[in-house]
Design a protein that fits this description.
Blueprint (H helix, E strand, L loop, with lengths): L3 H11 L4 H19 L1 H11 L8 H16 L3 E13 L4 E7 L2 E5 L1 E3 L11 E8 L14 E4 L10 H8 L1 H12 L4 E5 L25 E4 L1 H13 L4 E6 L2 E15 L4 E11 L9 H20 L6 E8 L7 H12 L4 E7 L7 E7 L2 H8 L2 H4 L6 E4 L15 E7 L4 H4 L12 H20 L9
Helix pairs in contact: 1-2, 2-13, 3-8, 8-13
Bound molecules: zinc ion.
The site of zinc ion has 5 residues, from α8.
């Protein structure tokens, strides 16, 4: 299959094929190569076998250094960009119990990323259930544990919107509850299914508001607690967590360039984030996205494609806990006049079957990219919409850059997201591989057709 592009170009220049048919043939060769080889899935399996990659952990940096060597061996020009990351460490045990008299029922719980620990011996108090932020002012939380029980709205077809509708309890729950006197907070895990697996994620404190411990209950236990509270409003919850903040450490963004032959100073970014939460191994979030990026440039190089612009892989460090790597990269990129970022692509929606692309650009540019839809349709990719791209590349936002996010099917994503279920067994090799091939095809056609050059004029 090597040098497929060259062979195809030669063949089609001799045969009477239309331009559209020639493009379709190139697309077919990219998807065929990806599905026959499945190299990205092999790398993803290897990555996940190295353990979780929480920013600030040794494994996170080790995975960067290991794959830098892999990328070197593939012939890309690699470099590391130092990134200072906060260091927060989950305790050896985290437990919660529903306490009714002498009865204690253990609940599945996990600390939210950034939470302080509970006092030695745990924290026990009565509980107030909160179904919406609007209801907060009518509730007396003094001395209580606040229980935010806002479910992801199941009526949204995009679970991303459902997540967005409920994530405030994780992000701002501790602040709003503490302002009203609460001594701890538990939230309903942001999961689209009911089970015993709690989901973590980042949370915030505010400067003048007392910090209180914050944790997520599994959806199963949130339902249980809600039901029991209706029968026994005086029941208590006990929470015991020993997480802690440590000194910040340095880690890296990993950058690998596939240098352009005509306009090397124009950069097409293809990216994912290499850090993950530490309950699972971040196979979907965002091992899959990181490997989509690597496999896409690997496929293009392997098949003999010579980009006009420099195609740049970026594995961002620390998307999950503050976007540190994306901020460092964007700041350096804006300060460097020798390069111009024209397109940035991100995959951070998991390794499920790709459905389309979300494009953050001018309406004219969105229309131009939508013209490629017929080429992607044979591969099930037809949802081309104007919208957000991704958190990391969002830092590069400017008038003269097109930002694009890969949009995989998301019905199962929030079942595993930020939980111990996010491991390699949750990833289907074919579904994942279609994502890599889609990015490779998108890069190929956008570089070939000079898409985005007009957006700078
Ligand atoms: Zn992510």
């Amino acid at each position: 299959m090597k040098k497929m592009f060259i062979a195809l170009f030669v063949a089609y220049s001799l045969a009477p094929l239309s331009a559209q048919d020639q493009d379709a043939a190139i697309f077919k060769s990219i998807y065929s190569q990806a599905l026959s080889e499945q190299q990205g899935f092999a790398w993803l399996t290897e990555l996940c076998s190295m353990g979780p990659r929480f920013a600030g952990s040794e494994q996170a940096t080790e995975s960067v250094l290991y794959f830098k060597e892999v990328m070197d061996s593939l012939g890309f020009e690699t470099s590391l960009q130092a990134v200072k990351v906060p260091r927060w460490v989950r305790g050896p045990q985290e437990k919660a119990w529903l306490v009714q008299g002498i009865d204690q029922t253990e609940m599945a719980v996990t600390a939210l990323g950034g939470s302080i620990a509970t006092p030695e011996g745990g924290l026990k108090a009565e509980v107030i259930e909160i179904k919406s932020f609007e209801a907060l002012d009518s509730l007396d939380l003094q001395g209580k544990i606040a229980f935010f029980n806002i479910e992801m709205d199941p009526t949204y077809i995009s679970t991303g919107y459902a997540y967005g509708s409920a994530v405030k309890q994780r992000w701002a729950g501790a602040i709003e509850a503490s302002k009203r006197g609460a001594i701890g907070v538990v939230i309903r895990s942001l999961s689209s299914s009911i089970n015993k697996y709690p989901h973590t994620g980042s949370m915030a404190y505010a400067p003048d508001v007392k910090r209180i411990p914050a944790a997520a209950l599994s959806t199963f236990d949130a339902e249980l607690l809600s039901k029991q509270l209706k029968q026994d409003p005086d029941l208590q919850v006990k929470l015991d967590m020993a997480c802690e903040w440590q000194d910040s450490v340095y880690s890296y963004n990993l950058i690998a360039d596939y240098r352009g032959s005509e306009r090397p100073e124009e950069i097409i970014v293809v990216s994912g984030h290499i850090d993950s939460w530490e309950l699972g191994t971040g196979a979907h979030d965002d091992g899959a996205g990181a490997m989509h990026a690597l496999e896409s440039i690997y496929l293009l190089k392997e098949m003999g494609f010579k980009p006009k612009r420099t195609v740049r892989l970026i594995w961002y460090m620390n998307e999950e806990f503050g976007l540190s790597g994306a901020r460092v990269y964007a700041k350096a990129a804006k300060a460097d006049d020798s390069e111009r970022h024209v397109i940035a692509i991100e995959s951070d929606g998991g390794g499920f079957t790709p459905k389309g692309f979300s494009i953050d650009a001018s309406p004219e540019m969105v229309t131009r990219i939508k013209d490629f839809r017929s080429l992607f349709e044979p591969y099930g990719i037809y949802q081309f919409s104007k919208g957000g791209s991704g958190a990391d590349i969002g830092q590069l936002k400017a008038d003269d850059i097109v930002l694009i996010g890969l949009r995989p099917d998301n019905h199962r994503y929030f079942e595993v997201h930020h939980s111990q279920l996010d491991n390699i067994s949750a990833v289907n090799a074919r579904e994942f591989t279609l994502g890599s091939a889609s990015l490779a095809a998108l890069i190929w056609i956008m570089d070939r057709d000079d898409v985005c050059i007009s957006c700078t004029k």
